[in-house]
Design brief:
15 helices; 565 residues; alpha/beta; 26% helix; five-stranded antiparallel beta sheet
Length: 565
């Protein structure tokens, strides 16, 4: 095992009792494939995560969110599930998960899991049963199986807007997809259930890859099935669930054509027929009722990639407690854009009551170091952005490696495994490279804890160890120790009620591209996004991402927390 350990001992502690703990929480996203490899096969697993939990606890975060580890053929790295209530042998066993949950709770860490209710794997037993049962069967009604209209290549037969202009939608039998919907991963969102069959003309819907068929949420049996999934994990003691593409699930009645054929990445936003249907809110009211039957109440966090005013509707008092602020997570280094989005999010909070849930990175997004300019400039800006993030009103989520200032990695084309790359030319692998624990390249830079180190599932770039945890731990000026300091100070400000759950965010841009977010009358976050030093508002600087100038001014690409006089 690599000799990386947290700075100082981490005590075993009971979880703090707080009914609304999530309002102040900092949650650390764990991508298990890339966190720590406990058995030497080159893929991160539960054994590795268990061994490294003290590192996470030493960050001072309140909990972890684990991306999928359930059984899956791994077409989309686990977001294609075959058994929602199991553990894929690739990652370990249910016994190991139970040990992980117990150890995490002992370290004061809550545990959130991913649930994927929009789609499953094409190898899921219920989908396989649907394929076998044939057209019109109850089994097929669990999914979106629709017979394709028969038409001629001139477009007759109701193929949907644009279908006649795309030769690849035609088969020898002359049938076409039910509508013009495009997959988020590129290409059409429909595949034949039984290609070439003259009697089975059904197509099935998959908003992502063909290996991820969409559930039919208009069938009550689907809702009943997922109620059981939630109960299973809540009964085990899981503290909450992050809900994948939470705004999708229901599709427009009749599956009408989309007014747009936007595909890759933008697919769910550009097609109003596949997401944000009013019916979906009843699902989250039902799940919130279920979550609050447990003590303590379980947390529901939505991946809701919509504009702030629409996304906030998912966090009304009887729905989910949190939804990620997607308008914020994708921002570049632009003061006016930050202020505009911040004020939109504040307006949504005032309308619906829930504070934004802040993040700047996740496993689907280009890392902030690279997004903010790359190289040394991007690294400095990412430090400032992390400080700003942790000072904002509401919960914050960090993605593994963000605390190290990891950049995006340019994965060689031949090594890319993201299905978005194959279908749509977009690759998310660069943010998913295994963590560097040690400076030395042995044992895959410490990613592999024991045994002979197998080839990692994604290649590690030369010099990856320069970002290593073992190098950053003793360095007081490192990105890692800045993150720890900010998280601890944040906790103290909550304890002393400088931060409260009622805080909002009043955003503005002052001269010199000085971004200001006034959290309340006592506290503000300032970020120097211009090219010249800027004078801070009056007050005491509690924290800055980099040292202030001798005159107390904020240098470009720096951020500070200011306690007002």
């Amino acid at each position: 095992m690599s000799p990386v350990s947290p700075v100082g001992p981490v005590e075993e502690t009971a979880l703090a009792s707080a009914p609304d703990w999530w309002q102040s929480a900092v949650i650390y996203e764990v991508y298990p494939r890339s966190f720590a490899d406990g058995d030497g096969d080159g893929v991160g697993d539960l054994a590795g995560l268990i061994a490294r939990l003290p590192y996470i606890a030493a960050l001072g975060v309140d909990g972890i969110w684990m991306t999928p580890f359930q059984p899956s053929p791994q077409v989309d790295q686990g977001y294609d599930v075959t058994d929602y209530c199991g553990v894929d042998p690739l990652f370990g066993t249910m016994g190991q998960f139970e040990s992980l949950l117990s150890k995490a709770h002992g370290l004061g860490l809550r545990v959130l899991l991913d649930v994927v209710p929009n789609h499953c794997s094409s190898e899921h037993p219920l989908f396989q049963a649907a394929l076998a049962a044939g057209p019109g069967s109850p089994e097929r009604d669990m999914f979106h199986f629709v017979p394709g209209p028969v038409g001629m290549p001139d477009g007759s037969g109701g193929a949907g807007a644009g279908a006649a202009d795309s030769p690849d939608v035609w088969t020898a039998g002359g049938d076409v997809p039910p509508n013009n919907w495009q997959s988020v991963f590129g290409g059409r969102a429909w595949s034949r259930a039984n290609p070439g069959s003259a009697t089975d003309t059904d197509w099935y819907l998959h908003l992502f890859s063909a290996g991820q068929p969409d559930w039919n949420w208009r069938n009550p049996a689907v809702g009943d099935y997922f109620d059981g999934v939630l109960r299973f994990w809540f009964d085990k003691g899981v503290d909450g669930l992050r809900i994948d593409v939470a705004h999708a699930l229901f599709k427009a009645d009749g599956l009408p054509d989309s007014p747009s054929t936007g595909g890759v990445v933008d697919g769910l936003r550009s097609n109003p027929q596949v997401s944000d249907q009013e019916d979906v809110h009843e699902v989250y009211r039902r799940w919130r009722t279920l979550a609050e039957k447990y003590e303590p109440h379980r947390l529901l966090v939505g991946e809701v990639n919509l504009e702030p005013a629409r996304a906030a509707r998912y966090t009304r008092p009887d729905e989910m407690q949190q939804a990620f602020a997607f308008a914020f997570v994708k921002l570049g280094w632009d003061a006016e854009a930050w202020a505009a989005v911040g004020n939109e999010l504040e307006a949504a909070r005032q309308l619906h009551g829930a504070a934004p849930t802040w993040a700047l990175e996740n496993h689907d997004i280009v890392r902030s170091v690279s997004r903010f300019g790359g190289g040394e400039l991007g690294s400095v800006r990412a430090r400032a952005a992390l400080v700003a993030l942790l000072g904002l009103p509401g919960a914050a989520y960090l993605y593994q490696g963000q605390e190290l200032g990891l950049p995006e990695v340019d994965i060689p084309v031949e090594a890319r495994v993201d299905p978005m790359w194959a279908r749509g030319g977009v690759c998310r692998d660069g943010a998913r490279v295994p963590l560097p624990w040690t400076e030395d390249a042995a044992q895959n830079y410490g990613f592999t804890l024991a045994g002979t180190a197998g080839e990692p599932w994604l290649p590690l770039p030369t010099g990856w160890g320069s970002h290593a945890i073992e190098l950053q731990q003793p360095d007081r000026q490192s990105a890692l120790n800045l993150a720890r300091t900010a998280i601890e100070l944040r906790r103290q400000l909550w304890k002393t009620e400088v931060f409260t759950a009622d805080d909002g965010g009043s955003w503005r841009v002052e001269a010199g591209d000085l971004l200001i977010c006034e959290r309340n009358e006592h506290f503000l976050v300032a970020v120097a996004m211009g090219t010249e030093p800027v004078k801070l508002p009056a007050g005491t600087v509690l924290l800055s991402a980099a040292p202030l100038a001798e005159d107390g001014w904020l240098q470009p690409n720096n951020a500070a927390w200011v306690l007002r006089d």
